[in-house]
Amino acid sequence: MTGIKTVAVCGAGGTMGAGIAIVAARAGFDTICFDMSADALARQRGAAEKFFGKSVEKGRMTAEDRDATLARMSDATDLEALADCDLVIEAIFENLDVKKELFGKLNGICKESTIFASNTSTLSITEIAGGSGRDDRVVGMHFCLPAQVMKLIEMSRGINTSDETFDAAWAWTEACKQIPVETQDKPGFILNALLVPFNNDVIRAIEAGLCSAEDIDIAIKSGLGYKMGPCTLLDLIGLDTQVRLGEAFYPITLDKRAAVPPLCRRMVAAGRLGNKSGSGLLTGQTPPKATEAPGYAIVSAGGSRSFPEGGAFLDAASEDAPVTIHLGGGFAPDTGKTAVVVELDTECLGVHTGESLNGGPSNVVGFARYRNGDDAPSNLIELVRRPQTDPAALAAARAIFEVAGFDVVVCADQPGRIVDRLVRPKYNDALRFLDEGLATAADMDKTCCMGLGYPDGPLERVTRGGLARHYDVSSAILAMTGQPGYAPARAAVVAKTREG
Ligand SMILES: NC(=O)c1ccc[n+]([C@@H]2O[C@H](COP(=O)([O-])OP(=O)(O)OC[C@H]3O[C@@H](n4cnc5c(N)ncnc54)[C@H](O)[C@@H]3O)[C@@H](O)[C@H]2O)c1
After folding, report:
1. Annotated catalytic residue, options 90, 154, 214, 402
2. Ligand 1 atom at shortest distance from the alpha carbon of 44
3. Residue-range definition of the domain harbouring residue 246
4. How far is the CA of 119 from the centre of ligand 1 (A)?
5. Blockwise average pLDDT, block size 10, the chain, 500 residues
6. What is the rounded distance in angstroms from the CA atom of residue 154 to the CA atom of residue 281?
7. How far apart are CA 307 and CA 465, in angstroms?
8. CB under 6 Å to ligand 1: residues?
9. Position 476 in a domain
10. Helices and strands (H, E) in the chain, number of each type
């Protein structure tokens, strides 16, 4: 039993607060919706009525339950109305002084036992609690957007939070049928600590001319099975929000990957914020899929990571054809062909073709079928072009793989191509967070699966794919870029050492 009967949500006129109020009222708690804006409260009251109306239509609740739930929700613009509540959850503006001021005022109004919870995404719970006059009774309770739909809550303790407070807040989230995970009072907790630098890496990859935003989404969805591509997510949350997140994180973490990418600032300055302004990273332009393709011959120099078991694609090859596909690390130039396609591992295509800056057009195209360590190869083909790659050669390679049923993306000859470039720093982060005790491996993975719709968490995936393989891929990219995010995390170094 939590002893909590009445809950107040501060900022209930806003996006998160409105959802949190629905969660509380739905679970049977008397819910005071507090906001400084009466208009915002009225708008959210309408939204709550609509939400519960839909729940009735879908058979999730009866009309009587809906009426009783709405009757449990009351509006307030005067803080004094919160005097008797047992739990206050604040979801007001993301500003330390504003949050401290609110808790400071509430300390003089609420009863001794009232627990204060903060839904902050980027601020420290300990610092917010510092202004409350009751820092043992303050807890972090980070809901995901939209709160009324998403079950995950990241729970964190400030330095002075008492066990009693943490346990009572935890029990309350369970009484609401939410799924809490425990994390530490560190910037971004689990979800944003992994997501903010990753999303910045995505923007930097576009800025670096690696590939289109569309191809990043295709690659990440097909290669990693994420439900939503990162560019779709960025356009949804807004590039202005991403700027704010970077500005909040970088000064605390000094992680360069958290710093706002220049392209992100330029997009915001240009009014391209994402869905809310009508245009963002995604352009809506994808080339039509090929319906016919030239024939291809296979030349194998040894084991292929892309096609280890043979299969239909290899069976469909001919003896002599306009395109030659080299598997297993081999390559022989042949200017008489429409295209010469070379399988890549962690190396760049230039290793095979040479790095001549001013040679004429080249018919050589690189490719790799994305594969997580020894997992079965995915359906994703990353094609690699160099500046001088003949568009006809690229089109022929694309057509061959598309007609064979693969998801095909095209990227520049840059280290890690698309998927490894973006996902390896995230694996290193997750492994380091595990060492630092941010959360258990299970909770970190659960957070990513529930909060972001990943099919499996980063720790499960990187260990399944093999930590030694992660070491190899990360080290190869580090050697070419010098970017610290690719420095293999301790566990990967250990795995590599043991393998040797
Ligand atoms: N939007 C997200 O995806 C998301 C996700 C998780 C957590 N959060 C966190 O939730 C909090 C709110 O974010 P949001 O996106 O819902 O913001 P929002 O701007 O949509 O809503 C904030 C609400 O707080 C009200 N408000 C501001 N100052 C107030 C005060 N002193 N007293 C009473 N009401 C006040 C505003 O009138 C507004 O209705 C932030 O701390 C944010 O970091 C946001």
Report:
1. 154
2. 39
3. 191-209+220-277
4. 9
5. 88 96 98 98 96 96 96 97 98 96 97 98 96 96 95 98 98 98 96 97 98 98 97 96 95 95 98 96 92 96 90 94 96 96 97 84 96 95 96 98 98 98 98 98 97 96 97 98 98 95
6. 29
7. 17
8. 10-11, 13-17, 35-37, 40, 91-94, 98, 102, 119-121, 142-143, 145
9. no
10. 19, 14
